[in-house]
């Protein structure tokens, strides 16, 4: 019997209330999510790897100014863009991660190159930039990452001690990390996550996104996970690995483990956000404890959905 294969994506969780967004903007979000999912799914249909599928899906989201990753990354306190990303292969537990890089169009592709061509897993700042140049990554000018809406948002809080998760008007209201998880035809799982971090962030702050086992994790024994939310709390809760651990040692299902972590454990430490997860049977879970989460899923059994709000 042919194995089920599937992909899930997210574009951030938070205070996403129906009616607050114009119809045109909502359509743009939904269309981009569907495109990212479709491009990743095409790879799975053609017997491609889960790793290739999640990278491709995240590249599409990084190339869109709608999401806080790649082109849409928010401004730091210095008026620059610092990006983080991670990718992991559940088949062999190999992983690659990058943090505090500038000018890289697709940080997720740099993370994959680190996974495949470096003896290390996690490279940051200038060292990561040197590695990128060594492997032929072209650097984009700062104006490639410029977005007027993001710039005006930064202007409201620059030169202050305030920082903001993503780029909305309400502080802490939206977390713009993007991510993808997939299970391929061979039952291998993979996860990829990418972010531009916090608006007006300072001191080289790093969130959960590039941290293996926290914002991103994949293991064929259990599942692949990509997180989005208030990074500091996800770090404290070791969220991604916690889901995997509950499945491996407590024998919980994917849905049970994901909901236990997001709807109970994370809330106990006042953390908010969500995650997407897939197991080696192609089952998908997408719990979140906020008003909404940009998300989508597509499976070889015919499932295909994109959603923003809770319903």
From TrEMBL:
SUPFAM superfamilies, alphabetized: N-terminal nucleophile aminohydrolases (Ntn hydrolases) (SSF56235)
UniProt superkingdom: Bacteria
One family from Pfam that matches here is: Asparaginase_2
InterPro entries, A to Z = Ntn_hydrolases_N, Peptidase_T2
What name has this protein been given in UniProt?
Answer: Isoaspartyl peptidase/L-asparaginase
């Amino acid at each position: 019997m042919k194995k089920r294969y599937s992909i899930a994506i997210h574009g951030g969780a938070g205070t996403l209330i129906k009616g607050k967004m114009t119809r045109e903007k909502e359509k743009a979000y939904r269309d981009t999510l569907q495109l990212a999912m479709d491009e990743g799914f095409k790879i799975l249909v053609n017997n491609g790897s889960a790793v290739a599928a999640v990278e491709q899906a995240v590249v599409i989201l990084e190339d869109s100014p709608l999401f806080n990753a790649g082109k849409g990354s928010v401004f730091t306190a210095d008026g620059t863009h610092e990006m983080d990303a991670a990718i992991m292969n559940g088949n062999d537990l190999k992983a690659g991660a990058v943090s505090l890089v500038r000018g890289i169009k697709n940080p997720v592709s740099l993370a994959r190159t680190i996974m495949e061509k470096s003896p290390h897993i996690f490279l940051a700042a200038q060292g990561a930039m040197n590695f990128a140049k060594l492997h032929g990554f072209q650097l984009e000018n700062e104006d490639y990452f410029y977005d007027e809406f993001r710039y005006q948002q930064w202007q409201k809080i620059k030169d202050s001690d305030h920082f903001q998760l993503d780029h909305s008007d309400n502080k802490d209201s939206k977390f713009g990390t993007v991510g993808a998880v997939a299970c391929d035809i061979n039952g291998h799982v993979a996860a990829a996550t990418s972010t531009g971090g916090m608006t007006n962030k300072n001191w080289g702050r790093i969130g959960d996104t590039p941290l293996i086992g926290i914002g991103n994790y994949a293991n064929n024994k259990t599942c692949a996970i990509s997180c989005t939310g208030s990074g500091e709390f996800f770090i404290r809760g070791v969220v991604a690995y916690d889901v995997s651990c509950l499945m491996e040692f407590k024998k919980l299902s994917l849905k049970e483990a994901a909901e236990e972590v997001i709807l109970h454990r994370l809330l106990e430490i006042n953390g908010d956000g969500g995650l997407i997860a897939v197991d080696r049977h192609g089952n998908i879970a997408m719990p979140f404890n906020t008003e909404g989460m940009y998300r989508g899923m597509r499976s070889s059994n015919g499932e295909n959905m994109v959603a923003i709000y809770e319903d």
